[in-house]
Design a protein that fits this description.
The chain has ten helices and seven strands. The chain has helices at 23-31, 42-48, 53-63, 87-96, 109-126, 145-167, 178-183, 185-196, 222-227, 235-239; strands at 5-6, 11-17, 36-39, 69-70, 74-80, 100-105, 173-177. The strands form two sheets. A five-stranded parallel β-sheet has the order 3-5-2-6-7, sandwiched between helices. Helix 5 (109-126) crosses helix 6 (145-167). The protein is globular and about 60 Å long. The mean pLDDT is 95.
Length: 243
């Protein structure tokens, strides 16, 4: 495994995601790779602290300008579209720095919504959005059908917005599906390492899966909620349990 890279050999990347798509787990995996520098949601933190769009872009431009010689073969961070204060300037920067895009989404929108709700419960109980300790796992809960429906509509819209944004970038894109990461982690990671042009490495993640893949183990009023979507494409999403 090579230990040093010239600046011209470094691959800049951005992980674009919505939420509950496995992005934190993916970043934790990538952080354990000695040739990859991964930063969490810096744009979100800057936005919360009142930073301007220019400050976001300036930070990203500096970040994507590594030293002449560095130990990292790939440098990047993850962000949601909603945390990018100036999407036009961000797009220009991506082209300027020839950034590669990892687009993270999940096929099962129903589970994405339940995971969103469960993550909020975890945050309220522990102050953390992701599960790191099995002892902090929460019991099943009752889902408010109206809130669920609202979140589901928001998810559908967010999926469409992310797809349209990445299509318009005209940059190298690797689409990563959360379900594929669960079913065949090694294949997904191999694709990522090839895309970023770094060496294969046995990485390890830090987060635990917070929501069971079987929603019957998570949602107390599962049948009631599922019945509201009978005959729709979402019905099968309630029943899906990955092997």
């Amino acid at each position: 495994m090579r230990k040093y890279f010239f600046r011209s050999q470094v691959t800049p990347y951005v992980i674009l995601f919505i939420e509950r798509d496995g992005s934190t787990f993916m970043i934790s995996l990538m952080t354990s790779h000695p040739q990859i520098q991964s930063v969490y949601e810096r744009f979100a933190v800057m936005k919360q602290k009142g930073a301007t769009a220019i400050e976001q872009i300036n930070w990203a431009r500096n970040f994507f300008t590594p030293p002449l010689i560095t130990k990292y073969g790939a440098v990047g961070f993850k962000t949601k579209l909603v945390d990018i204060l100036d999407k036009n300037a961000f797009t220009q920067l991506l082209h300027e720095k020839k950034v590669r895009i990892i687009q993270m989404q999940r096929r099962n929108q129903v589970k994405a919504v339940i995971s969103r709700m469960n993550a909020k419960r975890l945050f309220d109980a522990t102050g953390k959005w992701n599960l790191y300790n099995e002892k902090e796992r929460l019991p099943a809960f009752e889902v408010d059908p109206q809130i669920f429906h609202k979140y589901l509509q928001e998810r559908i819209q967010a999926d469409e917005e992310l797809t349209n944004f990445t299509k318009g970038l005209n940059l190298p894109i690797l689409k990563m599906v959360y379900e594929d990461l669960l079913l065949n982690r090694e294949k997904v990671l191999s694709d990522v390492f090839n895309f970023l042009e770094v060496d294969p490495y046995p990485v390890e993640g830090k987060t635990l899966k917070n929501t069971s893949d079987d929603l019957r183990e998570v949602v107390l009023n599962f049948e009631q909620l599922r019945s509201k979507y009978a005959g729709t494409p979402f019905e099968s999403m309630f029943d899906e349990v990955l092997a």
